[in-house]
Specification:
Layout (H helix, E strand, L loop, with lengths): L1 H68 L17 H59 L2 H12 L9 H16 L6 H5 L1
Length: 196
Amino acid sequence: WSRANKVHRASQDNAIVKSHEKLMLKDRMTYLDQSIKRIASAVARKEEDVKFNENVIQKLRDDYASEDKKKPVFGKECPTCKRPYEETAIRAAETKFLEEKKERLGSICQKASDLAAQNDKIKEELSALSRELSPLMSKHNDDINLNAKLFERIKAVYDQKDSLTDLDGEDLRLLEEMYLDFVNSGAMLEGKQRER
């Protein structure tokens, strides 16, 4: 009777350990999934910012070209009284126009420069996000591709593929691709080779 209890207890303990392992794996997968989604969302926002800034920069280029084409518009005489302007008044008006034009063009250039610098910063942030995502994706892929139990199930089906009549051509191709992906990822390696 006590031996049966020990076997039963060992079976329960084994089930608890397996259940705990499943929960730990599920927690890790959930964490990885959430991290990947967070980073992907941040990347999407940054890409939208870059695209928006590039559109604004193009509009600033158009504004610059339009502003640069402007010429002073005033005649040599007063439109109301028809008396000629003095040469100094004409030069002063042209100078004022050119100074204002220079300020407007400078303002446009400064805005474009600021946006270009902002895009450079965003691109650096995207690069940092990519560096953060890369090891997470590698870990995620390793957790799947080096999962011995999962590979055993896939290999069992793969080994029986010729006798499985309910698989069509697409199913067989998918099974072969999945099997080869696992093999190429190192699922059949043992010990130190697998750890590399």
